[in-house]
Design goal:
The relative contact order is 0.14. The mean pLDDT is 92. This protein has three helices and no strands. By secondary structure, the chain is mostly helical. Helix 2 runs antiparallel to helix 3.
Length: 102
Amino acid sequence: MTTDIYRRVEADPAYQQLTQRRGRFALTLSFITLLSYYAFMALVAFAPQSLHATIFEGGTLTIGVPMGVTLILGSWLLTGWYVRKANTEFDQLTQSLVERHQ
C-alpha cells in the first residue's frame, strides 16, 4: 500500500514542481557560495598582494580579513534564506501534498 501512495505523490504535478523549485533554489545558493569561496581562494593564490593593503594608515588589519568575514557571514545569510524559504513556502507546498494524498 505504501508504494502506491509514493507512486501517486511522485506522479502529482505539484510534487514535481516542488522538487524542481526546491532543487533549483538549493543549486543556485550552492553555486553562489562555491563561486564566492573559490573566487576568494583564487584571489589568495594568484593576487595575494591585493589582500596586503591595510584598511587604515599605519594599521595592521589588512583588507583580506573583512573580505573573509564577509564571505563567512554571507554564507550564513544564504543558509538562513534557504531555511526560511524551506520552513514557509516549501513546507506549505508539502503540507498541501500530504493533505491531498491522505
